[in-house]
Design brief:
The protein is α/β, with parallel strands linked by helices. The chain has a single domain, classed as Rossmann fold (3-Layer(aba) Sandwich), CATH 3.40.50. The protein has helices at about 15-25, 30-40, 45-70, 85-95, 105-110, 125-140, 150-165, and strands at about 5, 30, 75, 95-100, 145. It has a 5-stranded parallel β-sheet with strand order 2-3-1-4-5, with helices on both faces. Helix 1 (about 15-25) crosses helix 7, helix 2 packs across helix 3 (about 45-70) and helix 3 (about 45-70) runs parallel beside helix 4 (about 85-95). The radius of gyration is 15 Å and the shape is globular.
Length: about 170
Amino acid sequence: MPVALTGFMGAGKTTVGRLVAQALGVPFVDLDELVVQETGRSIPEWFAVAGEAGFREQEVRALERLVDRGKPGIWALGGGAVLQPGVRAALRRAGAQVVWLRADFEEIRRRIGPEGRPLWAAGTEAVRRLWAARQAAYREAAQFAVDADGPPDVVAATVIRWIRERGYVAEDL
């Protein structure tokens, strides 16, 4: 049973995911990195060549392959992944528990800055609207939400505590 981390870009999914996986001794997979590895094309290249929709298609395919391979562990999803019906279906099929790393917009902006990701090309206010629009999807997809504005090790400790409180051990993940 994988634990999938969701949340907006810059919420700390990759950083926290690596910390959680390392602490629990389980595999870690970053879905964005998996898309890049499997396709040989960076995320900015995907956005430039095929737009966000083309990238999202690749994201769904990569997650479906990950689920088919039965790769458990901690998964960091892309910031828009849970908006995709194919991603939600794959997560259900895998029996994944979804944890929302809930971060304040200003904290995200501070972490990655306006030049940090392809979607920022639309401008700060457009990204703020996107952040606001995605909050409901994150809430709906998640079994647990954690405040991700603090230091990554504190956020990771909260996720680990939640996993252990459910009685999950490394063999379950």
